[in-house]
Amino acid sequence: MDTEGEAGVPLSPFIVIKGAGEMASAVAWRLYMANLRRICMLDLDRPLCVRRQVSFCTALEAGAAVVEAVRAVAARSRDDIRTAWQARSIAVVSTTNWARIGAQAPAPDVLIDAILAKRNLGTRKAEARLVIALGPGFTAGEDCHLVIETNRGHDLGRIIARGSAEPNTGIPGDIAGHADDRVLRAPAAGTFDSQRAIGDSVRRNDVIGQVAGQPVIAGLDGMLRGLIRPGTAVTAGLKLGDIDPRGKREHCLTISDKARAIAGAVLEGVMRYRNRPGSIEC
Questions:
Q1: How many of the other CB atoms lie within 10 Å of CB of 49?
Q2: Do residues 121 and 115 make contact, with C-beta atoms less than 8 angstroms apart?
Q3: Mean pLDDT in runs of 10 for the chain (282 residues)?
Q4: Under 8 Å CB-to-CB from 207, ≥6 apart: which residues?
Q5: I want to staple 72 with a disulfide (CB 3.0 to 4.6 A). Which of 43, 56, 86, 205 is the partner?
């Protein structure tokens, strides 16, 4: 973790990714496939990701996770992180453990805020030589070096070196003519319970689960592409899952088109930095 080019680890910048959900995992996957292998991802002790089949944060619960043949493992110490890298794996650390590990670790070369909270939860430009942030809530040149546009449309994946991404619309992306009705949300605060699984076929008005005794109901026919982990404490309105009207199982198990576009933009941003020695700005 301290030096580049350790035994068994390709020469690579030290990259920290805040978040280990769907978009963050697509970013990590793309960087890994470009042979940038010193990657450490951070997520909540109890992650709130929906697309768990393509999210490395599930390693925090299961010990390991695989997305499109790339493996990530849970790490609880600096030694664990080194071991993960030497085994050609991505390291995933809970935010609780990172509060201890990070205080002793060198500053990352690259920090990527992929939490997608629609606002800045504390990321600063001074945290790394290159700071990249995904989506609205950040201003390139102020709290980060680069912002990546995450809104679907003509500018999806655009790299912004000065200014901000488009404001949050609050409207889910359209898939096969469906937007709001394909997203499952918590009807109340409480614990989400469900007997359903990602990949299940569902029909409109099916009960997918419940929160505080209130049902979570499917708004259309399709396949459960994502579902938050049953037993998770949720707030009212939190996204619990999404239904893909196309009904193709492989869509549940692979990175989406949107995530690939965003991840490609992040890789470009990192390479702009890496290929201009001595330069912070990109």
A1: 26
A2: yes
A3: 53 93 98 96 96 97 97 97 97 96 89 96 96 97 97 95 89 66 95 96 96 96 96 96 90 95 98 73 42
A4: 215, 216, 217, 218
A5: 56
